[in-house]
Write a structure and sequence with these properties.
alpha/beta; Dihydrodipicolinate Reductase, domain 2; 2 domains; six-stranded mixed sheet; five-stranded parallel sheet; 9 helices; globular; binds NADPH dihydro-nicotinamide-adenine-dinucleotide phosphate; binds biliverdine IX alpha
Length: 295
């Protein structure tokens, strides 16, 4: 069994505690047992689980695994601490707010012989799995993914990182990309932000990613993918699957802990994660260079 701590008790942290308390029967997630949670606030028991001080979690021989669920800005530091203490780490995306940091963290995991796993529930939704099937075999001519949502809370980093799930969709659907432009419009007073990034696929087809956030904007993804044979202008709808998204991710992490995931899959995942963070870095540079600064 792998003694596990959940680090950070917010929306994601609470779901992690719930899933660890009742893992899917006969799945790899059953091999983790929750020993406590870490929080920067003194908290009461959560779902019957007790708080553990960070230093105690790092030093305890009963704990082999940390699941980092804090806001993005703090991920790097927690991952580093737990890896250095010889623990396996699962982190909610994105693992860091720069490509360079992610590369270092992965090197550290390798050096320590520990699993480093970045959660990507956006790839696990039934709708996305259907979309991926629908796109398979078609030849893209041009496409747009436009996300809207409420204002980004502080501590979640630049939009290309807090929105890495959208970028990950594009890369998972259409392969590795090259950034051709990045720009930003921002009205701080109104808490409004809009980032537009453009890419070329390896086949030199143009993709546009728009991430737009502000008060009153609902969480939504609009697509427009033009293929040689047809155009897709809405996401497919597929029936919800019985296993929750974070639980599916926990099973995948559990399989990694048990050495059940083939090395080629681990390599491909690592490559995709690093590629997406590298694209996010580049978009940030372009958006923040003087020639592109917004309103
Ligand atoms: N929510 C979701 O559906 C998804 C989230 N994620 C990722 O999970 C991570 C965390 O996101 P999420 O859980 O939504 O973020 P939250 O804002 O809910 O929580 C982030 C952190 O803030 C602290 N916190 C939570 N509530 C309070 C409060 N009332 N007062 C003060 N501090 C508080 C907690 O840390 P502490 O206990 O140390 O104070 C918590 O870990 C991010 O990396 C995100 O990208 C990924 C996929 C889906
Ligand atoms: C209702 C308020 C609500 C909040 C505060 C919320 C926060 C939230 N949802 C996220 C992703 C996500 N959130 C969900 C799904 C959910 N997440 C949920 O909290 C709920 C109730 C669902 C319901 C289906 C999915 C599937 C993702 C993956 C990212 C994506 O597909 O874009 C993320 C990670 C950053 C991001 O990708 O934007 C945050 C911070 N999601 C919400 O829906």
């Amino acid at each position: 069994m792998f003694g596990t701590v959940v680090v950070g008790v917010g929306t994601a942290g609470r779901v992690r505690i719930r899933d660890l308390l009742s893992p899917l029967p006969s799945s790899a997630a059953e091999k983790m047992t929750i020993k406590g949670f870490v929080s920067r606030r003194p908290l009461e028991e959560q779902q019957g689980v007790k708080q553990i001080a960070l230093e105690e979690a790092l030093g305890s021989e009963d704990i082999q695994v940390a699941i980092v669920c804090t806001e993005n800005m703090s991920h790097e530091e927690y991952i580093r601490k737990f890896l250095e203490a010889g623990k396996h780490v699962c982190v909610e995306y994105p693992m860091s707010l720069s490509y360079a940091a992610a590369k270092e963290l992965w090197e550290l995991a390798e050096q320590k012989g520990k699993v480093l796993h970045e959660e990507h529930i956006e790839l696990l939704t039934a709708d996305y799995k259907q979309l991926k099937k629908d796109v398979a075999g078609k030849s893209l001519q041009e496409g747009t993914l436009h996300f809207t949502g409420g204002p980004v809370p502080s501590g979640f980093g630049f939009m290309a990182f807090s929105g890495i799930a959208r970028l990950t969709w594009l890369v998972d659907l259409f392969g590795e990309l090259t950034v051709t432009s990045g720009s930003m419009v921002e009205d701080r007073e109104k808490q409004y932000m809009k980032m537009t990034a453009q890419f070329l696929t390896q086949e030199q087809r143009q993709l546009t990613w728009i991430e737009e956030r502000g008060p009153g904007l609902g969480r939504m993804k609009n697509i427009n993918f033009r293929f040689d044979s047809c155009t897709m202008d809405r996401l497919p709808e597929a029936p919800r699957e019985p296993v929750g998204l974070f639980m599916q991710d926990l099973n995948l992490f559990g399989q990694k802990l048990l050495g059940q995931v083939p090395p080629e899959q681990l390599q491909a995942e690592r490559r995709r994660v690093l590629h997406c963070l590298q694209l996010a870095d580049r978009i940030q540079q372009l958006c923040q260079s003087p020639a592109h600064s917004g309103v």
